[in-house]
Write a structure and sequence with these properties.
This protein is 37% helix and 21% strand. The protein is α+β, with helices and mostly antiparallel strands.
Length: 126
């Protein structure tokens, strides 16, 4: 089997000339023990924003309509949540999901507004 699988390279010896693998020794000797660190080094802002989207969409505590109205932006590993939520719990859980996503440095929720019921049309909560 060719390729990388769970920290070991599998290839016959004669493939070393055809397909040079410069980091084979580091994987075989176990010098790269923490693969999650390598994953975070290769992470881009687009990947991070996508991971936050998955984290929020997989949270059953946030309603579907709130999930559709929350917008996610990533810049230099800082996440900005904007849009609207129906209640404070959705805002809180979206914040916690974003903050607990690996690779996130900080989460800004200033632009994520909470809609009050229609009985109070002129008021908004932050």
């Amino acid at each position: 089997m060719l390729g990388y699988q769970w920290g070991y390279w599998y290839h016959p010896q004669n493939y070393g000339v055809l397909f040079p693998l410069p980091s084979y020794d580091s994987y075989s000797e176990g010098t790269c023990a923490n693969y999650s660190v390598l994953d975070l080094e290769l992470l881009t802002d687009e990947d991070l924003a996508e991971n936050v989207v998955y984290s929020i969409y997989n949270d059953p505590r946030i309603s579907k309509t709130d999930k559709d109205h929350i917008k996610i932006e990533s810049k230099e590993f800082n996440i900005t949540l904007s849009g609207e939520a129906k209640n404070r719990s959705s805002k809180f859980f979206a914040y916690m999901d974003a903050l607990q996503t690996p690779g996130v440095n900080d989460v800004d929720i200033k632009n994520l507004k909470i809609n009050l019921p229609t009985a109070y049309p002129n008021h908004t909560l932050n």
